[in-house]
Amino acid sequence: MSIDIQTAHDPYNLPDLDAALAGSRFAGNLHFFPSIPSTNTHTMQQADAGAPDGSVYFADEQTSGRGRGVHAWTSPPGSGLYVSILLRPRITPADILWLSLAAGLAVHNAIQSVTSLQPDLRWPNDLLFGPRKFCGILTELNAEVTRVRHAVIGIGINVHQQQFPQELRLIATSLFIETSRNWPRQDLLLALLRSLDRELIALTGPDADVQSAAQSIRTRLEQRSSWIRDKRVRVDEGDGFTGITEGLDARGFLQVRTPAGLRTVLSGGVREAGPA
Fold it and tell me: Strands, E, within the chain: which ranges?
């Protein structure tokens, strides 16, 4: 699948980026690749090899970018922000969803601070403008019953694409399409990592209160997302079902009111449904 890109090269300056991140977990841990099959696959491999918490792997191009489930993430050179972050969080596997949801809020904050745009958040891992997606988040982990060995948060943001293939034009967009402006990927990455660091300190830091941080995440998601409450959705889980969203449960899972009662979405994709 090809995507038309007609933009000047948007390079990264690693020394400047590293200096701007001084004092954070990411300083001194930046790794850039002109091209790589998948930043998430590479980061999981580096995690198994003992890479430290806060290691950041990002690329100008992915040749086999991965999204949630079996979905691919098209990642042509120079067109988007493709980054994976290795974490060794002090958090239980039961609370790991809050980490992924916090990453979505970090992306939202970064986009807002750099571009002044107000994207929507679709549970659990997509950011949209209207009905069209411009960012996906893939969280993968290696865990025991009581502890997380490591987690990898992969983030793909469409930045410079000027158009998409016909089959994607109704469901995909980019920051350029939304604003007719090319936003520097370096600015976006810096804002993202700073925001994510703040979220991680609140959720997994040495003085963190996970319940308090989770409540903050839940509250902010309801403020920033049209999908968490009162949205009629179709859930692709099991045989599939349709209902009205009713917020998040105590673990961060989406609740949907159906004619048969309240159901909790554990892993299925969520899409907007038509009128009843």
Answer: 30-33, 56-59, 80-87, 120-122, 126-129, 132-143, 148-158, 229-236, 241-248, 254-258, 261-265, 269-272
Among 99, 175, 112, smallest CA distance to 138 is for: 99
Confidence of residue 65 (pLDDT cuts 50, 70, 90): low
Query: Model pTM?
Result: 0.92
Domain membership of residue 161 as a residue range: 14-223
Q: How many domains are contained in the chain?
A: 2
Q: What's the sign of the alpha-carbon dihedral 263, 267, 272, 275?
A: negative
Token output for 145: 């019953």
- Token duo for residue 249: 């449960």
Q: What is the CATH number of the domain that holds 58?
A: 3.30.930.10
Q: 200 and 235: one domain?
A: no
